[in-house]
Amino acid sequence: MKLWSSFIKELLIASRGFYFYVELIAAFILLFVLLFVVPDNFSSKEEEFLYLAIPDPAIEAAYIETFEDLDGAPESVVLKIGRDEITTQLYESKDAKLHVVATEADMVRLAEDRHLYGATIQLDPVDGQWHYTYYLQGNETSRLKQLLLVLHAQDDAVVFPAAENQPVETLASELVLLSDRENLLPVFLTFNGALMGFFIIAAYIFLDKKEGVIKAYAVSPSPLWHYLLSKVLVLTLTMLVTSLLLVVPLMGLRVHYPLTVLFLVTTGFFASGLGLIVTGYFDDMAQSFAVLFLIMIGLMLPALAYFSPSWNPAWLKILPSYYMIYGFREIFRQADLGFVVRLSAAYLAGGGALFAWAHARFKRTLTV
Amino acid sequence: MITVEHLYHSYGRNDVYAVKDVSFDIPKGEVFGFLGPSGAGKSTTQGILTGLLRLQKGQVTVAGFDVKELKSSMFNRIGMSFEQSNVYSKLTARENLQFFAKLYDVPTRDPDELLKLVGLDGKGQIRAGEFSKGMKHRLTFARSMLNNPELWFLDEPTTGLDPAIAATIKGIIREQNQQGVTVFLTTHNMYIADELCSRVAFIVDGEIKLIDSPKNLKLQHGQSLVTVEYGDDCKLVSETLSTVDAQGRKRLQDLISGQRIRTMHTKEATLEEIFIQVTGRELV
Ligand SMILES: Nc1ncnc2c1ncn2[C@@H]1O[C@H](COP(=O)(O)OP(=O)(O)OP(=O)(O)O)[C@@H](O)[C@H]1O
Ligand SMILES: [Mg+2]
């Protein structure tokens, strides 16, 4: 009952504060980005600019045939560079967009301006040899450069059938495949939930520290842990609401909601416990800024690993946010739901330990 | 109501004590003044009595509870008004009181009645953040009365208030005391201590130098003085004489019989002067 009135009071205070709206607005911004800025699937068609230096029109036509344009006819496209307009012939196949440009100079300009690849394909009229000149961006891996060299070292008739006959097997075929947008959601949820929760509970407690109300609470018959827990509950609730604001429009009914709520609540509890600890050791925002900032950066690192699968050092796995991101992904892929339940239990236990630690610290550092 | 025996408290882990071997007893119904200069250890002692600071060494019972093993029910019976006002600035004055009232297990007073008592009637709907310093202080003071405490801790209750409001606050303290409330008053204002306290303790550098009633102290340490102004219109002379020693009394008699007396004021030693005399320290 006392806990309930503390909770209601905290909710009232939160709703009159600035951070509550920061959280809401942040959630709306993330939702907006996901819905309108991020395409459902990133375009995977490669776009290139070509200049064909093939003197014999018949051979050129035969060469263009190999582009396999979907509707069999090129499209005339006008591309702008500053005020200049360049017309190209666009051949769109299943997995590539090829612009044939009329002059080599324009091809190079377009490649440079659009940060895409350009190439000159030349048939030497004297010796009948094909020559390929590639215009790259400069940030390509040496692997790609070597691949391009290899590509022309062999006859097409050898290279292409070999590539096509290369068996490709998809592992874990029972998984629900996530669209690119859905793939972003775990990171956004971790950011919106854990990070915001961590930061905002610290902001709330520092405000109370400044006002000294904790002391007034301490000389009431209500135990101090009620005070701390009511803060955590408010944070977890707002986090749950703002997170569902992202999940519901994006995932609709394709998600196990009880599990989602469980995971949101337990991770939120954990993150706010972390925030409580920091506030136990500092007096105000300014004093704790460096620590808050470092923890926030640390919590964001797993997101980098998530987006670049080749960078995934082992030490990253000790960061609690690592498992938040992968936990959310498991939920959305409807893969290992038991894993999510076990993770939730771990976050609950970890959050409980942090809470007990923070409580002891707060009791010890009460002042007159 | 309060017994303290050989209380020590240190903020560091060393042997520097903010409070050293403090002992006193406060019977029910008393207004006990805890007086001392800044940094003397007043708030520290009060913090231990109210459970804000952990008891390190010594025996302390408050309202029948041993503060070594704090029980939350003790807080149903005590009230505490802080030196630095501490209220939720995002809540209105009334909400502040309403919320804290819910934390008690005993009947609580009506928030509006309390606001009226401290001169904040009509201000209940205003958020405490918009209050002036004095208004916040009065709200903090009002909050300490919510649970009808039988033991009331007051830390500098009138500091920073304008004289009229300070007088109201003093009136409330006196009235509560008449209804049987025991008051532990911490202050460095000797006038309010003199007016309100049945007994005072002088504390300096963490040690109690003396405990007695203001009246006794004045009898023991104070000299009764009289200031006499005499002479004619163009030449006014003023002399301060002791009414206790023989020389002073003789001179006074001579003046009364031989001179034209213009004004004559008796003057008691103030508690402040006694404090300086006893402790050798200023009350700052
Ligand atoms: N949180 C703290 N940490 C370390 N030392 C402290 C702390 N609080 C008080 N002290 C020290 O303990 C001593 C007593 O301080 P205390 O606050 O009890 O004095 P006070 O009599 O209440 O003074 P004031 O009239 O200024 O309120 C001082 O020397 C002070 O420096
Ligand atoms: Mg003090």
Report on the architecture of this protein.
- The complex is a heterodimer of chains A (about 375) and B (about 280).
- Chain A has about 375 residues and is of the alpha/beta class.
- Chain A folds into two domains: about 220 residues, no CATH class; about 120 residues, no CATH class.
- Chain A contains 13 helices and six strands.
- In chain A, strands 2-3-4-1-5-6 form a six-stranded mixed sheet, covered by helices on one side.
- In chain A, helix 9 packs antiparallel against helix 13 and helix 11 crosses helix 12.
- The model of chain A has no long low-confidence stretch (mean pLDDT about 85).
- With about 280 residues, chain B is of the alpha/beta class.
- Chain B has two domains: about 220 residues, 3-Layer(aba) Sandwich (Rossmann fold); about 45 residues.
- Helices cover about 30% and strands about 30% of the residues of chain B.
- Chain B contains nine helices and 13 strands.
- In chain B, helix 7 packs across helix 9.
- Chain B is globular, with a radius of gyration of 23 Å.
- Chain B starts with a strand and ends in a 5-residue tail after the last helix.
- The mean pLDDT of chain B is about 90.
- The site of magnesium ion (MG) has 3 residues of chain B, from helix 1.
